[in-house]
Amino acid sequence: MNPIFIAHLVADFLFQPTWLVKWKKRSSKGIIVHASIHAAILAVLVIPQTFLAAAIILIIALTHGIIDHIKISLPKKSFEPAFLFDQVIHAAILLFAMRFLPFNQNFWNSENGVLLAALLVFFSFGIGLWNLIHIKNYPVQTIQQKTVRISTIILVFLLYGGATILAAKS
Q: Angle at CA 43, nearest 5°, toward 90 and 135?
């Protein structure tokens, strides 16, 4: 799996606890912290070797913060459409950026790399699923609402899996 997409999943799901989500809604400082977490995790997983790679990581973090700010600013009646749109835009930016952001393919194709990727995706999905089902601002009360929420989350993870496959073919 491509570490660029793994970094996004880890930063958006595993390392975005409820208190950070609330902080992002209250203050731009929360968005800056969240975008910085994206940059840090991406830098750890990709290990940029050039100034261009470091600049691309900063651009990804900056665009992530801008997208999140826009999403928070828009009025919404339900969680799922805004969440899905937000993730599709992030994935599109990552698909574009990955063409210019090299990473150690030998490691990520090795047993250790695949294991690390699988663990990070597994934990990101589990924590993300738990957090997103229990959002207090958008509670799920019926089985139909819970099914829609879970389906949306699964769709997002499939989106990133598809983006990874697309990235591998190009």
A: 45
Q: How far apart are CA 83 and CA 81, in angstroms?
A: 5
Taking the model in full, what pTM does it have?
A: 0.89
Which value, in Å, is the radius of gyration of the alpha carbons in the chain?
A: 16
Q: Contact 30/72 with Cβ under 8 angstroms? A: no
- Give Cα 38 to chain centroid, integer Å: 8
pLDDT 10s digits, 18-62: 889 889 989 999 999 999 999 999 999 999 999 999 999 999 999
Contact 159, 91 (CB under 8 A): yes
- Whole-angstrom distance, CA of residue 126 vs CA of residue 32: 25
The number of residues in the chain equals: 170
**For residue 7, is pLDDT > 90?**
yes
Supply the DSSP string of 29-93, one letter for each residue: HHHHHHHHHHHHHHHHHH---SHHHHHHHHHHHHHHHHHHHHHHHS--S-HHHHHHHHHHHHHHH
C-alpha 143/C-alpha 86 separation (Å) is 24
Q: Pick the more confident residue, 38 or 80.
A: 38
CA angle 157, 134, 74 (to 5 degrees): 75
